[in-house]
Structures are given as C-alpha cells and as structure tokens.
Amino acid sequence: PRVPRYTNRLINEKSPYLLQHAHNPVDWYPWGQEAFDKAKKENKLIFLSVGYSTCHWCHVMEEESFKNKEIGEIMNKNFVCIKVDREERPDVDKVYMTFVQATSGGGGWPMSVWLTPDLKPFVGGTYFPPEDGVHRVGFRTVLLRIAEQWKENKDALLKKSQKILEALLLSSEICVRGQESPPPSKEVMATCFQQLSNSYDEDYGGFSKSPKFPTPVNLNFLFTYWALHRTTPEGAQALRMALHTLKMMAHGGIHDHIGQGFHRYSTDQHWHVPHFEKMLYDQGQLAATYSRAFQISGDEFFADVAQDILLYVSRDLSDQAGGFYSAEDADSYPTTASGEKREGAFCVWEAEEIRALLPDPVEGSTEATTLGDVFIHHYGVKETGNVSPMQDPHQELKGKNVLIVRCSAELTAARFGLEPGRLGALLREGRRRLSTARAQRPRPHLDTKMLAAWNGLMISGFAQAGAALAEPEYVSRAVQAAAFLRRHLFDPASGRLLRSCYRGKDNTVEQSPVPIQGFLEDYVFVIQALFDLYEASLEQDWLEWALQLQHMQDKLFWDPKGFAYFSSEAGDPSLLLRLKDDQDGAEPTANSVTVTNLLRAACYSGRTEWVEKARQILAAFSERLQKIPITLPEMARATAVFHHTLKQVVICGDPQGEDTKEMLRCVHSVFSPNKVLMLADGDSAGFLYRQLPFLASLERKDGKATAYLCSNFACSLPVTSLQELRGMLCP
C-alpha cells in the first residue's frame, strides 16, 4: 500500500468514520478541547462536519471536497475543522441538527455547520457540491463567503449566533406546565390510529408513498391497538395494516433475499429499490416485530423472516467477544479489479449472471424450463434490469436487478406446472448458489464500532424471538451479548454505562483513551433489553442490573423541574443545549421507551415512584400526544400500558419442572402488551422475593406449577391448567 500523502489527528481515533477521513488534506480535529482552544486562540470560525460511516452522501462529499487539495487549503486557512461521528456523539449531532432543521427547513447527513469560536452555530446545511451549479451554491464559494463575512462583520455574526441560540432554547423546551396530568389514553390511541390509517398505503403497506421506511414503532403501536380492540372493526384493521406491511417488506427488495437482513429504506413505493446500507438498530427492532407478528397470527412466514434477520446478524454483525457491530455500508467495489465503489454493487444481479449460475433443467415442469427461468420469474428479474431510471439517478444500477418477490409461490408453481413444495426447494437451491457466487465479490465496509444502545435493541430482538419462537439458542445469544455489555460497556466502579467500544487489532475489543459516557438512549435501550432478557431466560441477575441502571438513569438525566429525561448529562460546557427528543423515528425516542421501562421496573421492585415518573413523562408530552401522536407512536402505545396497568403474571414452580416449562411456553406464545412475567421459584433469599414480599404468600396448588395474575400487588385465584392460563392472558 502507498504511504498516504496526508495524515491528520483523526488517525488517533477509534471510530471507523473518523478513520475514513484521517488521510484527507483537511486538517481535521476530533470534537474536543484542543480544537476549541485553537479556535479561540486564533479567533477562527469552526467548520463542523457530522456524518457516519455508512452514509452515502458523506462518502460523496468526501470524494468531491474533503479529498480536494485546494478546498482543503481554503478550509485549513480560514477555519478550525472538526469531524464528528454522529453515532458516537448523538448529543453533539442533535444540538446542531436542531439548528439546521430550524433554519433551513430540512436536515440530514452529512451535516455541515459553521460555528463561532464559542461553538454557537450561525449557518448550516447538509451536502454541498464542490462547485457552483445552476441550482446550488458550491462548497468552495460558501467557504470563501463565510470567511469573508467573519473578517468584515464579526460583531454582527456574533450577535446573530446569540439570538439563534436564545430562540433554540425557547423552542426546544419540553416541560409540564402547571399540574398537567397524562393525556386520556383512549383519545391518544384513537387519534394515533386515525393518523396512521390516513397515511397508510393500502396496496403496498407502509405509511407514505416514497421513500418508505420500515418503522417498527408504527407496527408495534398497531399490534397493541389490536390487542386492546380485538373485537372491533378498527382492531381488525390495525392488525391487517401491520401484517400486510410486514409481508410486503419481506417480499420487497428492501429485504436481502440472498444475504438475509433488511436494508435501511426503500426509495420507491413498492419496497423495491433500497438504500443498501444495513443498520443494527433496524435488525434488532424488526426481529422483535416479526416475532410478535408470528405470536399473534401463528403464520410461520413471520417466524421465518425473524430467523432470517437473526441469521444475518449472527453471521455478519457479530463480534467473537459477543457484541454486535453497527452497520454495513451501501457502497462496494463491483469486482476486485474495480477502481470505484458503487451503491448496491454487492447485492444486485444481471439476468445472464443468474442464468449462468442456474442452468439445470427442471424435471417435471410443463416446458423445457431451467432453474434460472423459475428463479428469474419469481424474483422479478428482467433481461435489461428491473430498476427504473427514476430510482437510479447516478446510473449505478443500469442493467442490474434488485430481487423482489412479485407473485405468490402458488402462482409461480402453477406457471411452471410444479408442486408448491417442490418450488420451495428449487428457490432455496437458487438462493444458495447466488449466495456462494456473491461471496466472491468484494464486501462492503463493515462499521465495527459497538454501541450500547444499539446492542440493547439487538439483545431485545434475540430475547423476544427466542421466547416467542421457543428457540433457546436465540436466548443464549442474547445472554452472551448482555455479558459482553457488562464486561466492555459498563464501569462497575461508577455504575455507569459507556457509549461505545471498538474492534481493535487482532480482533480484541478496544476502548478510547477517554471513553464516551453513555447517553439516555444507552440506558433506556439496555434496560429494556435486560427486562426482555429476564422474561426470556428468567435469570434474576439481569433484573437486578436493570434496576441499578434505572436508578443511575434517574440520577444522570431526570429533569426535576420540567419532568421527563434529558438526552444527555448536565455539566458538559461544549453542549449548548440539553434537549429532550420528541419524535419516534428509525429508533423510538428514549422518553417513549422509558415509560414502559419505568412501569416494568415498578412491577419488579414495588417502587411506586417509578409509576409516578412515567405519569410525569406522559404529562410533559401531553400536548404533542393529543395533537400529533403519529410522531410518537411508541409513547402513544405507552399511554395505554399506563392506563390499563401492567399485569404481573407470576408462575410459581420449579424452574426445571416440565409443568413450569409448559406454563412459561404458554405465556410466551401469547401477545399481551400489558403483562410482565416473573417466576416465583420458592427461593426466599433470591432477588425477586426480597423486592416483592407478596410473592412469599403465593403457593403451588396441589404441588403443581401454578399461575397467578396480579395487579397492584393483589392476585387472582390460582390456575394450574394451560387453558385457564391462556384465558387469563387474553380476556
């Protein structure tokens, strides 16, 4: 390899995204005191660039501008340049994204923001082309104009930045005004359902025309809505919307039919042509959602998709020490000889490639058919490629095919005169051969950073799938990942979570010299994961750790004045705002998930102050929940959990006894959004018995495993039959 011409300070960082920019001619600094001091000392503006390693337009802007020597010189002469990985520092990203969205009406990555030496933003945007075009000002021009303004009108710029900051502080405040109570759950649920119905695509599923995102928060809301309105037409409609969306996504090109897992989102209405990066947070949430779909419908199709996701994560996003990597890139080299990367190159196919790989004649079909013919028909492959030019502005996919299931197995079988069972075996063989061929292609870049929050979401995916699908090896994988978190992303001395760790040389796990402390979302998603893991494994250690982390979360992030939790800790002078996120997006917002966490924590500990905190969060977001709950479907769902009070399902029995195991399997097979499960194993010195004295009064009836349904620590009559238990769970 050539010795790079340039090397900047990012070479000392651990983040794969920062390391990608370590050899730019730009004199990049990481976010930190050294850069801030330089800006103050030299009285220079700061140029802040925020992105992440699998972001397509981040790569484009680097190629066009940050690798350009002349543009690099302009940047170095006039600005202190700082690079931030938004996945490492969501707090920094959120502050400046709030500014960019407020001032430009849009946002996204790469985010480009200019700050005064005291870190106040005054102008910002996203991607800039390098030179002026017909419709857009080029990056070079913007840099020169801003440098000129700083020379000529410094005081005006400083005044403007102060005004902007004051406006942001006012507009971003979320708090309880007066003695507000939580909004009425029934109305919030009805409004959210109505808003989702209005944006629902009847034909292809999903909640917009295009682009289409796999929004698990919407689907989970619909499942809960169904569970509370099973006998009504609206309940049936909610379930139909959720299951149809999940089916269409699984058939679409957003689902990787050869390599498993899901891509980030679809650029079209049909879930066909995706942006090809694969993110850990999508896999974790979708594995849980497809498992719930199976629980509710009993349709093996959904179980197969959940298993497909978990196969991908186990194989391609797993570190040997037990953690999960963050993402796989969209762009890769088409062949080992290629000079430039293309989006989707690893995943797309030419028709003739497929024919060459699948030439075998299919016996018993109606005409002289090859395996290639059947495969091409079933997956919508066209000789000239199946991607519309509208979906391919850079012509990277010309002549290529993104596989999509266009018709049912029955129709494909009938078309070639085959038995449906036989067709399944043929398609499996086709996928296996394409997978082997694809393994010869250069792989996309893998972001081997491991984040506490996203590992939490993935642990929940494995734990919930393990419970719902009765697959103990998934629960074991979740246990392995939770042990990894405790070993590498938790500081037992301070009791605090860390945000990130990294795959180092020789596949060891490395930490930054100054570790990044966990943010609110790290605590919330890890606590949720530990509750899910307890319910799947019934190992009380995870419960104990979850409650310790909940206390720490309260201490670090709770807002005693305005209620709800801040996204970041107090006391970082480089953060201008302490914000509270107010939108469930690709990931649910932390305050939404924490409502259910707090209610679960109260059930396992008997601490009613956690119920009170949940009430106060719902009150703080009351206005938004009543007007536009579609922006907070996970919190809307939590209003129902709060209103209906969580039911404690207590199984008294010997953990090794077959009767106990049968009862637990029964509980796991039923979707019930407002239950928490606990096992009373008779060990009065154990953690649960110490937390919940009422458990000591519950007995096994006639020596058999016995179930009780308890609410507010008062319990139903004991039941010992599975039929009665099922009836109790689905009233």
From TrEMBL:
Domain (Spermatogenesis-associated protein 20-like TRX) ranges: 7-168
UniProt cross-references to InterPro entries, sorted A to Z: 6-hairpin_glycosidase_sf, 6hp_glycosidase-like_sf, Ssp411, Ssp411-like_TRX, Thioredoxin-like_sf
CDD domains in the cross-refs: SSP411
One Pfam short name: Thioredox_DsbH
Species: Chunga burmeisteri
Full protein name: SPT20 protein
GO biological process: carbohydrate metabolic process
Taxonomy of the source species: Eukaryota, Metazoa, Chordata, Craniata, Vertebrata
